[in-house]
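Work Package 4 report. The design task specified in the project plan requires that, given a folded chain encoded as structure tokens, an amino acid be chosen for each position. We show below one input record used in the internal validation round.
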């Protein structure tokens, strides 16, 4: 059986690393990279660090408006699918690369497997929400990470082909945590364990309006606490465009870091401020509280269990929250499976295909 894997954006490289490793023990895999992310530290760096096999195809689509980016992907993915004739197309998460993969494959009557299926924010202004809904509707296999995701699909009438296997990001986190030197990473960034804040921001609702972005940066400065902020290129570009600068020495903007550096920073942060989906979960894997710079989350179990606090764009709440003791003791119960999601996915495909 040949599986054609479609990836394109940073979190998809991280998700596909453990799954690819497992797939290749049993099946032939062809990797297609849409080129949605292309800077070395947003793309190739992860292939090198995580030993992901080089993509067989890189479409080089790059950045564009949603319609143009997705449309160009559709045209090019279709050509590859017609040439490779895979038995299954594998898509991850909720980006425009996910959507284009689902559409191109299902129009050619190729079965689609969606990893990280069933998530909903119930906010259709998020491009990811549209991408997820369409991807799930078109998928024959929906590999979901949580019981909440199962419920979301059932509510939408999707019960066949749903498998709660846990979260492949947990597989990735465990695999890499055991292989990295945390002290070396802290030394590189001149940080002391539990004496800094880690921040990431890239959602359009926080970056695209200059007033919101300015207020967010100013709120970080007013915390007066060492803050390391690996900056997503979207955010960097918009800060340049709007001429927003960081004045406080406590807030250190750095280029996007590697995955292993990122999980070392997560593990040692006092608290994590983020609007990222993946980083919210990794905060929990690392046993660190996340303050989520969004009004809602797909990962509701984090909020229900006191691991994440949603503050939307009310950034004034930050200093009050941070002055409280918000550290939690990790519980033995895992909210995202047992770190064996990749193996379970491949096992389902082996029996069901
Ligand atoms: C995309 C996904 C989002 C995901 C995120 C992960 C969609 C709609 N959005 O958002 O779900 O959470 O990736 O990081 O698919 N840019 C560069 N270099 C790069 C990549 C991007 O400079 O290598 C800049 C460009 O200015 C580009 C902007 O970042 O216009 C946004 O990139 P894009 O891929 O469109 O969306 P993300 O915000 O990265
Ligand atoms: N990440 C990384 N370097 C960084 C920032 C994030 O390796 O500088 C990793 C992070 O550990 C997580 C993933 O990127 O695994 C999250 O991706 P992102 O926040 O871009 O997207 P989202 O998860 O919100 O879709």
């Amino acid at each position: 059986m040949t599986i054609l894997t479609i990836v394109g954006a940073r979190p998809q490289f991280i998700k596909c690393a453990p799954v690819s490793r497992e797939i290749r023990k049993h099946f032939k895999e062809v990797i297609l990279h849409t080129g949605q992310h292309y800077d070395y530290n947003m793309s190739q760096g992860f292939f090198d660090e995580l030993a992901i096999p080089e993509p067989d195809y890189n479409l080089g689509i790059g950045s564009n408006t949603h319609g143009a980016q997705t449309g160009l992907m559709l045209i090019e993915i279709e050509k590859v699918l017609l040439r490779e004739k895979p038995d299954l197309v594998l898509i991850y998460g909720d980006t425009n690369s996910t959507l284009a993969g689902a559409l191109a494959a299902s129009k050619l009557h190729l079965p689609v497997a969606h990893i990280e299926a069933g998530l909903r924010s119930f906010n259709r202004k998020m491009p990811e929400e549209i991408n997820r809904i369409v991807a799930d509707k078109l998928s024959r296999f929906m590999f979901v990470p949580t019981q909440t995701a199962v419920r979301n699909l059932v509510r939408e009438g999707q019960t066949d082909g749903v498998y709660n296997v846990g979260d492949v990001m947990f597989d990735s986190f465990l695999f890499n945590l055991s292989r990295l030197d945390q002290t070396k990473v802290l030394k590189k960034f001149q940080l002391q364990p539990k004496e800094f804040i880690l921040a990431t921001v890239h959602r359009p609702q926080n970056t695209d309006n200059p007033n919101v972005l300015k207020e967010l940066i100013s709120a970080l400065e007013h915390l007066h606490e060492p803050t390391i902020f690996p900056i997503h290129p979207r955010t960097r570009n918009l800060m340049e465009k709007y001429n927003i600068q960081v004045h406080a020495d406590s807030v250190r903007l750095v280029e996007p870091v590697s995955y292993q550096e990122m999980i070392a920073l997560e593990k040692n942060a006092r608290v994590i401020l983020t609007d990222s989906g993946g980083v919210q979960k990794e905060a929990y894997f690392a046993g660190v509280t996340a303050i989520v710079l969004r009004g809602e989350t797909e990962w509701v179990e984090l909020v229900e269990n006191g691991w994440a606090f949603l503050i939307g764009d009310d950034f004034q709440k930050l200093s009050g929250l941070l002055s409280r003791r918000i550290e939690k003791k990790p519980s033995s119960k895992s909210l995202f499976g047992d770190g064996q999601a990749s193996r379970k996915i491949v096992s389902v495909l082996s029996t069901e295909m």
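Residues 181-323 form a domain with the Rossmann fold fold (CATH 3.40.50.2000). Validation will be extended to a larger panel in the next phase.
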